[in-house]
Amino acid sequence: MTIIKAGTAKRDEAGQDDPLGPYRAELISDTGHLTQFGAFIEELPPGSHSSYAHWHRSEDEMMLVLSGEVVAIENGVETVLTPGDAACWKAGDAVAHTLHNRSDAPVRYIVIGTRAAKDTVTYPNHDRVLHFDRATRERTYTTLAGAPSSGPLKS
Fold first, then answer.
1. How far apart are alpha carbons 155 and 141 in whole angstroms?
2. What distance in Å separates the CA atoms of residue 29 and residue 145, rounded to the nearest whole number?
3. CA-CA distance, 42 to 51, in Å (whole number)?
4. Share of residues in the chain with pLDDT > 90 (%)
5. Whole-number Å distance between alpha carbons of 21 and 102
6. Model's pTM, two decimal places?
7. Domain 10-116 has CATH 2.60.120.10
8. Where are the domains of the chain?
């Protein structure tokens, strides 16, 4: 058993220069060396996005708001989420989703998702598909039509 005390998990963060805005994440499952699912607590300051709108072919994903307010955007439909609200995205369902903090205070939420050996992540608004192999850590990108792509996102 691995106990992870508050404030001791591995961290990931981005600054003001990130195109999605700054964020801070506590990587709970990585710190605990879990392999079957990922779990992290993310904090988004006002104005930040969680990700580019995307959906996973092979991985379930869910989030639960702990504090603050965030807008979940699913295929362009917006829903305000507050503490205790959750969103679930089933693997293979083409529901492109992202979160946007439009409030004037930080929002904190936990994200939990399966970790498939291989996954395909579709970014429909950017004409990109990520093909990811967890064992080799290899990432390749194509366009939505399947043509090779030189970069992760269309400018």
1. 14
2. 34
3. 12
4. 92
5. 12
6. 0.92
7. yes
8. 10-116
